Amino acid sequence: MQTRIRNLPLLAALLLLAVTDVSAHSAEGLAGGFLSGLMHPVLGPDHVIAMVAVGLWGAFLGRPAIWLLPIVFPMVMAFGGALGVAGIPVPAVETGIAISAIVLGAMVAFAARPPIWVAAVIVGAFAIFHGHAHGTELPGAANPLAYSLGFVIATGLLHLCGIAFGALAHWPAGKVAVRAGGGLIALGGFAFLFGLA
């Protein structure tokens, strides 16, 4: 009985993730816009690896980067999203997204420790590409504000996944695992860049 009760939150989370726009009213307002925005970053593996890399790099760098980088990214990403919604073009968005995974993964893999402002500028520059992609792919009937709220929350959760994995860097074997994870993220970025994934 206790096992069933402990599994209820997991079941509820899985059911929540299984909800589609079809079953959520008519893709308008908070339901369609929010759920679409929440799922967009999670369903794009190129977005996932880059956003996890931000949290991973922040955790690897320690304070203040562990909280600063995951704040900078969604704030600048929201600006990029507004550009996309407004129809303002940003060149080479998909290339920028792939390169973001390469660069951010490489920063972790090579244990790069630039000044915090340089790390924030790197993260912010790549956030524009991710935000623009989210903004231009806004479903026609969706509420832009609810959709944006969804993709910002999903981004924050992906950053938290990176931070959680990056916490392993406190131990020698964990540091190796974190750096290897950064290398895998960079390789994933190359795969997206050359159309292999």
Model description:
With 197 residues, the chain is mainly alpha-helical. The protein has one domain. It has 8 helices and no strands. Helix 3 (45-61) runs antiparallel to helix 8 (172-193), helix 5 packs antiparallel against helix 6 and helix 5 packs antiparallel against helix 8. The longest helix is centred in the C-terminal third of the chain and has 23 residues, at 144-166. The chain is globular. The model is unreliable at 1-5 and 8-30 (pLDDT under 50).
Describe this protein with a few key phrases.
0% strand; single chain; mainly alpha; 8 helices; 197 residues
Question: Radius of gyration, Cα only, in angstroms?
Answer: 17 Å
Number of domains: 1
* Strand residue content: under 5%
- SS field, number of helical segments: 8
Tertiary shape: globular
Q: Please identify the structural class as seen in this structure.
A: mainly alpha
Unreliably modeled segments:
1-5, 8-30
* N- and C-termini, Cα separation: 43 Å
Question: H/E element string?
Answer: HHHHHHHH
Give the biggest beta sheet.
Answer: none
Kindly report the average pLDDT value: 81
Number of strands: 0
| Helical residue percent band | over 70%
